[in-house]
Amino acid sequence: METTFVMIKPDGVQRGLVGNIISRFENKGLKLVGLRSFTPSEELASKHYEVHKDRPFYPGLVKFVTTSPVVAMAWMGKDAISVARNIIGPTNGREAPPGTIRGDLGMDVGYNLVHGSDGPETATFELGLWFPQGINEWESNRERWVYESR
Ligand code: IDP
Ligand code: MG
Q1: Does 13 reside within a domain?
Q2: 23-80, pLDDT tens digit by residue?
């Protein structure tokens, strides 16, 4: 089982898409093991997006995610990192295929509604950053109806 970090960015919260977005991960069969809604500090957002610090869009990106609340989540499941990335879709909403969050709901490359960890090291780093108190793991009786065997 893998756990991945997913964040609904301020555009998703402001547009009232929180329920729509969460239900896609839930319906897929992933398990919600962490959930926090708050406006991130500049320190937190800068650390989260540190890999992009030399990119021209970095200052605007940090400003974007610190001006309004986000919904930070931890989702668990088999291959949860790639499964979540597939649910989210490619970065640019105009190019993202229908069926993905960005393809169905977004029209922009920066305002693209959701963040998802892109690999195991990133997921560990981001989960530690956003959930310093740890995740809330729990036993789901649903999982024996999601996976053939455990
Ligand atoms: P990802 O979210 O699909 O993994 P990344 O390339 O890791 O995309 O970029 C991180 C975030 O930075 C994107 O989700 C988007 O919000 C923003 N971003 C990426 N490229 C651009 C750009 O060219 N202009 C503005 N914002 C961008
Ligand atoms: Mg990325």
Answers
A1: yes
A2: 999 999 999 999 999 999 999 999 999 999 999 999 999 999 999 999 999 999 999 9
What is the sign, positive or negative, of the torsion defined by CA atoms of 119, 53, 12, 88?
Answer: negative
DSSP conformation class of 68? S
Is the distance from the beta carbon of residue 86 to the nearest atom of ligand 1 less than 6 Å? no
Query: Residue 145 domain-assigned?
Result: no
In this structure, the residue with its CA closest to atom 1 of ligand 1 is: 91
- Model confidence, pTM: 0.97
* Domain extent for 36: 2-137
Ligand 2 centre and the CA of 98: distance in Å?
A: 20
